[in-house]
Amino acid sequence: MTNLTILAFALVSFIGIATPGPTVLLALTNGSRFGIKAACLGMAGAVLSDFVLIGAVALGLGALLAASEFWFTIVKWIGVGYLTFLGIMLLRSKGTLDVLHTGRSSAGSSLRAIFLKSFFVAVTNPKGYLFFSAFLPQFVRPELPQFPQYLALAVTFALIDFAVMFGYAVLGSRAVRLLKKSGALWLDRICGGALLALAGSLAFYRRANA
User: Fold this and answer.
1) What does the CA dihedral 91, 126, 112, 187 come to, rounded to 10 degrees?
2) Most buried of 4, 86, 104, 193 (most Cβ within 10 A)?
């Protein structure tokens, strides 16, 4: 795998990641509601999901979802349900900035929830598996060892993903500081509506050969 291959992969990945998706929207809302440090826990969850998805694709799970209507549907509706739940929670928000509790156990639970939300949003989205299944092989040379190539692509994608999410988290944090409570309210409404729209688009999503 050459540096030019990695550069081409990074460019295409950046374009795809920068387009707002569920994990990017969560980074935006986490930054506005909890601050940058706490939002980084959500980013870590999303980055872990990148490695899980790419690892699963390398092991053939993406091909399984592309071939099996049953398993594709199971994963899809889990993702739809979770996105819908998150969207409704944001729409019901009162627009107040959430403050993590100072108690050790409650603060740990809140931070863990931020991490798990971003992780589960990504791993329950079958579009991610199908995307990587179609996307990654174009940058992998079959005559060379597979593991080092997939690892290099996974690390590259994860770094770009984290950088983009961090930018959105900073944007959300600064927007709320400028707009105060009304800003938090409208940001929650916009992101909640966007998550519901993404849930709707996923509900109608079909496999290419379906």
Assistant:
1) -30
2) 86
Q: Position 159: which residue type?
A: L
Long-range contacts at 180-185 (CB < 8 A, ≥ 24 apart): 181/95, 181/96, 181/97, 182/95, 183/32, 184/32, 184/33, 184/93, 184/95, 184/96, 184/97, 185/93, 185/94, 185/95
- The H or E element that residue 146 is part of is helix 146-203
Per the domain annotation, does 88 fall within a domain? yes
Determine contact, residues 45/119, Cβ cutoff 8 Å.
yes
Task: Give the list of residues 6+ apart from residue 38 with CB closer than 8 angstroms, or none.
Answer: 30, 100, 110, 111, 114
Neighbours of 6 (CB within 10 A): 16
User: Is residue 4 domain-resident?
Assistant: no
Could you tell me if residue 34 is inside a domain? yes
Residues 129-169 have pLDDT tens digits of: 877 877 787 788 877 888 888 899 999 999 999 999 999 89
**Structural domain tally of the chain?**
1
Task: Mark out the alpha helices in 60-145 (DSSP H runs).
Answer: 61-67, 69-91, 104-123, 126-135
pTM for the whole structure:
0.73
Q: How far is CA 207 from CA 51, 66, 70, 200, in A?
A: 23, 6, 11, 15
In a domain, 71, yes or no: yes
